[in-house]
Write a structure and sequence with these properties.
With about 270 residues, the protein is of the alpha/beta class. It contains 9 helices and 15 strands. Helix 1 links the parallel strand 1 and strand 2.
Amino acid sequence: MQIAIQGFEGCFHQIAAQHYFGQDAGMLSCATFGELIRKVKSGEAGGGVMAIENSIAGSILPNYNLLQKSGLCVTGEIFLKIRQHLMVLPGQTLDDIREVHSHPMALLQCMTFLEKHAQWRLVETEDTALSARHLRQRRATHTAAIASKLAADLFDLEIVAPNIHTEKKNYTRFLVLRKTEDAVKEDHPDKSSVYFHTANTHGSLARVLSRIADEGVNLSKLQSFPIPGSEWKYYFHADMEFQSLDQFEKVVRAIRPMTESMQILGIYKKGVTV
């Protein structure tokens, strides 16, 4: 199976996809999340893995909009611990480094370590894994990259400083996406992603949330984003965790009349942390 991921070979999307689909799954690298969605919708990819939020940086808001409009089904999730490593060409050492290349977010995540080496020039790039690949392709001495261990393994680089990220509890949540007709029904699902839209009236959202709580369903995520073309009206993305499918279906029946529109994006099993 070919799996669409955003990023280049060796990126964190690939690590998440391999954990979920297995090491033998083929990867289709996409420059953008929109391209990822298109490859899954067209059938060029049998599934996709898309980052949706990070425990430090928060929600990736454009991806919620993409997800709602995609027509794809959420069939799973995975939580990946983000580990950043400093890598160089074989034979190079910390003393040889003059420049460090990586994505701006990765540089920020490692700033406490980098500030100890103020003589290094920091160079922002479009992708962590691409920085590692360019380091190998250009045989760039006196240069280091910050990327994943997978990138170091793929491009035969040596990690001279492992786990240099400042915040050790840094996780990214990825959603697994497939076309609805390709989705495999889970035997014992316990989570669902739902979009809904309530009237812009006093207490309308509170009534929906109260009913969800009354039914004993855990609301693990509630994200709002504006409805394009409207005046301060919002959709809500809700992730609900439940004990049984019957419990979830009861909640849906209860809150659907309270909403102006509602869309179930997928019913799946809660993800594991790797």
